[in-house]
Amino acid sequence: MSEEQEGQVPNNQENTPNPQWQPNSGGYKNINQPNPNDSFPPYGGGFGGMQMALPNATLVLVLGILSIVTCCCFYGLIGLALGIVALILSRKDRTNYFANMNYYTVSSYKNLSAGRVCAIIGLILSAITVFVCIVFAIFYGFNTLTDQEALKEVLRELQ
């Protein structure tokens, strides 16, 4: 081979790019890899054509259920904290889902919505518990909430 022909491709081989790569203004891009700046996902949606679950959908569901279960524990403060955390996480995932609906599964969004509803119910029940404890502490003192014998005595007087 001469020096002129060294850097050239022989005529029997075509110089075509891989069909999975498409040209764009900055060179070539892989069409199977998602681009967060694109409004549409690659063909088939998601990563490599597969949709994935929302990252915190299961966690939001678990925290929402736990906020209902623990709404009466420790004067309602645990349920209040769990409900707030679940709502914060659900807001982040909802924005991700609505920005890229084809990247995420519908079932994970339904789990996220159910967890969000549970978190709201847990927040309401916990807020009621906190309110009742505050009112009870104002009228009967905080000591009656911590001492079981004093609480029994106050409850007997109320009957």
Task: Walk me through this protein's architecture.
This protein has five helices and two strands; from the N terminus they run ββααααα. By secondary structure, the chain is mainly α. The chain has a two-stranded antiparallel sheet with strand order 1-2. A hairpin with a 2-residue loop joins β1 (21-24) and β2. α1 packs antiparallel against α2 and α2 runs antiparallel to α3 (106-140). The protein is rod-shaped, with a radius of gyration of 29 Å. The termini are far apart.
Secondary structure elements and their pairing?
Layout: E1 21-24, E2 27-30, H1 57-69, H2 77-99, H3 106-140, H4 142-146, H5 148-158
Helix pairs in contact: 1-2, 1-3, 2-3
- Strand-pairing-aware structural class: mainly alpha
Q: Classify the helix fraction into a percent range.
A: 40-55%
Q: Give the ordered list of helices and strands.
A: EEHHHHH
Radius of gyration over C-alpha positions, nearest whole angstrom: 29 Å
Reported for the largest beta sheet, the result is: 2 strands, antiparallel
